[in-house]
Here is the input.
Amino acid sequence: MPNAANNPVLIHHPRITLRDFTPADGEGFVAYQMDARYRALYHQPDSAETRATSTALFQRFLGWQSETPRQNFQIGIFDGKTGAILGCIGLRQQDMPAHVAVMGLELAPACWGRYRLALDAITLMLDYGFTQLGLATITGSTGNGNRRITHLATWFGATLTQSRSGPDWMTQKGWHEVDWSLTREAWLARNNAT
Here is the structure.
């Protein structure tokens, strides 16, 4: 099985491109996290604190690219035609059992509700994780109020594995956190059935 762990990530699709961030992408990343809708979702009223946190997070993503072996892949989602940043998606293996990664997806507020965008990004990243990185299981978590992500996870063949209290921003919305898990076998079975 190929091991792409130390190669730059670049995945083209007719509608989007998934690729490693470059320093030039930092401004766009921070800008969408500064959006009032984003800050309201995560209960971040202080814009200066949000800017500092977002900048540090972006620098962490860049730093992960040079680690050997690379265990964390947080990459940008870009419009396939304009190159505009639409969000980010990641697979993080650090502190996980061998061949297991945690997936996370974040869309810029201007893209919220673009179900097809989320579907495409998740499909591409699952395929990358299972075929290029040789993962056996991809897990994730979301708020139970985020029905779109929960629906997507089960549509891909994932099973819901656990429910627990979430971070403060979820609790304030009356949500709890749910975990899901998808095995390579379930992913392949779903792909072979379609």
